[in-house]
Write a structure and sequence with these properties.
Order of helices and strands: HHHHHHHHHH
Helix content: 55-70%
Strand content: under 5%
Distance between the termini: 15 Å
Length: about 150
């Protein structure tokens, strides 16, 4: 199960936050290479209720670096943009699989036995953890328990 570019684009804040219309994976890839606007991070905080610490942890970005990004409202580096895209993809999947943003917010913050009793947000710090979270969300979407 994978989120579509449109679903991720909406999680990132759409045209209002990004400042450009994205219609394909190649357009999204170009945007990631140029760097996403830091306003995307504020959008996550507003729409998902993330604290700075949760956001910094799930993106594997030092808290001080994240704070500078939020204050300067500049473009992120390509690597940071890629991690933000990964988070947006997981958020889209969580919302779809669980069926409700509020319930998805709770699920992301609850320790999960399949993840070694860490939260899905914590697991997102690594690529392997993100893939494991995706697998769990896929099982949830198709009627499994995780």
């Amino acid at each position: 199960m994978q989120a579509t570019v449109d679903q991720v684009y909406e999680q990132l804040g759409g045209q209002e936050t990004i400042g450009a219309k994205v219609r394909s994976e190649s357009e999204m890839e170009r945007l990631l290479r140029e760097g996403l606007p830091a306003s995307v991070l504020g959008n996550f905080r507003e729409n998902w209720g993330f604290t700075v610490m949760e956001l910094a942890g799930s993106l594997a970005i030092p808290r001080s670096t994240l704070m500078r990004m939020l204050e300067r409202r500049s473009r992120m580096a390509p690597g940071d943009s890629d991690r933000v895209y990964r988070l947006a993809s997981i958020l889209a999947l969580a919302e779809i699989a669980i069926g409700d943003r509020k319930k998805a917010q709770l699920w992301l913050r609850q320790a999960n036995q399949v993840l070694g009793n860490q939260t899905p947000l914590r697991a997102l710090e690594t690529e392997i953890g993100a893939r494991r979270v995706e697998q769990i969300l896929g099982r949830i979407a198709y009627g499994g328990v995780s």
